[in-house]
Amino acid sequence: MADQAAGVVAPANEEAVRAWDTVLYERWKKNRKVFVGALGEITEELFQRFPPPEGGRCIDIGCGFGETTQRLSELVGPDGFVLGTDSSKHFVEDARREAAEAGVENVEFELSDAQTARWDQTYDYAFSRMGTQFFAMPVQAMRAIRGALVPGGALCKICWRRKDESPMWAETERVVERFLSRPEQYEADTCGPGPFSLGNPETTRGILEAAGFDRIDLRSRDFDYYLGADIDETLDAMLAIGPGAELIRLNGELGESRRDEIAAALAEHLSAWRQPDGSIVGRGSVWFVTATNPG
Ligand SMILES: C[S@@+](CC[C@H](N)C(=O)[O-])C[C@H]1O[C@@H](n2cnc3c(N)ncnc32)[C@H](O)[C@@H]1O
Q: What total of structural domains would you count in the chain?
């Protein structure tokens, strides 16, 4: 567990943490089936390739609703332990409740900003799925995560590659851009550096090197991203989270006033990705990132 720094948010992260605890939490929760479900297969693949040690201690950074925390708890087995951490109170409350309802005993959840946390150096394996892209000071945060790992402990994480590598994000944004542009000023909170901040492999490698990791490896993985059972579910998801959705949100009332036209144009564009069963499947691209704490 983290020490007294738990729950303290770095001033530079306040806006992103607030966004994730309010509007983005609500939207992630509403569209959870898509956002979490779509990543299930590649997450399992990563766990197969880089499994946590049986009986080991894991930490899950930016754990959201804790699906991966619970899965890690199965993988380490009853003698192991997993700490799920997130800077959003709402995500942590849900994760805690769901794990208790599922009767999972070897997990705990903690509210902490990874950038200010000071965890005991007792973990064998640090995991994160899409939880490390939002730090204002990523080196500081990754140093804190490395500090939780015993010497030889492993980091294993998934993050988006560059936006243009994922047609589902890039093309959705381009459709929205036919109607809206990014306003110079806006009142909405944003999620800081954003989901694609680690897309450049040299950036990601440089951050991890500066944070003291070694044996850094990035593998790209392109995959089919399930966007929804039908066009309505897909539109709900793609206009809730992601670069196209953010463009609408940052435009405030103007963005909302154009939502119906955007949805119609997007429905037409995405119909090219319709499967025989009516579901919509796009393409996404992530990095599987692994590294080691040399000690
Ligand atoms: C894209 S969601 C991913 C959630 C989960 N890992 C999953 O795959 O479903 C990003 C998560 O990172 C969390 N997060 C954002 N900034 C954070 C920070 N500074 N420290 C810890 N967690 C953070 C958010 O609250 C959110 O739960």
A: 1
**Atom 19, ligand 1: residue with shortest CA distance:** 113
**3-class SS of residue 175:** helix
Residue 22 · residue 189 · CB < 8 Å: yes
User: 31-47: per-residue pLDDT in tens?
Assistant: 999 999 999 999 999 99
Q: Tell me which H or E stretch contains 262.
A: helix 259-270
Residue 39 Cα: closest atom of ligand 1: 8
Residue at 144 is within a domain? yes
- Residue-averaged pLDDT of the chain: 95
Range of the domain at 254: 11-292
Is residue 2 a part of any domain in this protein? Answer: no
Distance from Cα 129 to the centre of ligand 1, integer Å: 8
Tens of pLDDT, residues 195-233 = 999 999 999 999 999 999 999 999 999 999 999 999 999
Is residue 276 domain-resident?
A: yes
Residue 4 has pLDDT above 50, yes or no: no
Flag whether 5 is in a domain: no
30, 35, 36, 41: CA torsion to nearest 10: 150
Element spanning 128, H or E: strand 123-129
* Eight-state DSSP code of residue 5: T
Residue 26 sits in a domain whose CATH number is 3.40.50.150
What's the CA-to-centroid distance between 283 and ligand 1, angstroms?
22
